[in-house]
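Its record is retained below.
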Amino acid sequence: MRNQTRIALDVRDVEQLFATFDPSPFHAFSLNSTAAQYIASQSWYAPRHDAFVIALSIRGKPAPAVQAAKLEEVVRVHFSRMANSEHQNLRQLIRTGLISLAIGLCVLAFCTVLSRAIDNSALPGGWREGLRDGISVFGWVANWRPAQILFYDWWPVRRTRNLYRRLATATVEAADRGERTAASDEVAPLDTMPIGADRN
């Protein structure tokens, strides 16, 4: 049996977790941004292979099964959509990195040829060395951005995508009476957070 990370969620009314859209083009509930950020923040440092369980309570009492089932479906749809979005962002980032790398290598090759030509020119020594070194540095600087993308920038996007994929498989169940996790004690209760700003 997989280990579980439980995320305690206590609300006044389960409806406050949802953001509703105009009937077109969306036809389903989605989590509002505050609820989604809370759930993601509580799951961020969970062990990689843990399954997520959202323990839902309403005004401190275990949530009815129908409310838990409704939230589970909304969580699945919401985080599946977010995971797909992050996957597209990751693909675009890698594509940008590869294109930038191709351009950077071409610039570096041109700068290398140009610096050698200057090194063999009849320019005065100080000018020749300054231009040669400056062009060489420019060629390497042109590869700074693709190196940053391909070595560093894609990791956070991949991690976020994978977290959303795991959250999309989370189960929602009624919380045990009085259940409260140590992590949730460190944040404001959801019903005290601003609910108005929805981002999907």
In short: Confidence is low (pLDDT under 50) at residues 181-200. The beta strands are 4-11, 18-19, 30-31, 51-58, 61-62, 171-174.
